[in-house]
Known about the structure:
Layout: H1 3-16, H2 26-45, H3 51-58, H4 66-72, H5 77-95, H6 99-110
Amino acid sequence: MTLNDLCKHAHKAALAKGWYDKERKLPELLMLTVSELAECLEADRKDKLSSNLAIGIQNGLHDCSTESFEIFFRDTVEDELADTFIRLADICGFYGIDIESHIRAKMKYNETRPIKHGKAY
């Protein structure tokens, strides 16, 4: 699946789950993405990493069921990062953004920039 395919899929899923039952504007969609990053920060502060997921997969315990997801993955750093990507993909799908082209162009441009883009951090 390409990133653009992922964006279409994420937006289709958001539509199906009622996230667009009312008009959505970009500022609201962006803040929902920021809220996922805040949840990721909280998961990190609580040291909630899904290292158990890797162990579960190795031992055949993780079968992608709701129960195993809740045990191994829910509310972890990785889960919240996944939510962040899904929100971003949904935004791209909603607006029909060819994110793959934009990422390639931005990375090519960034190659021409100085170390840390001339900033302290």
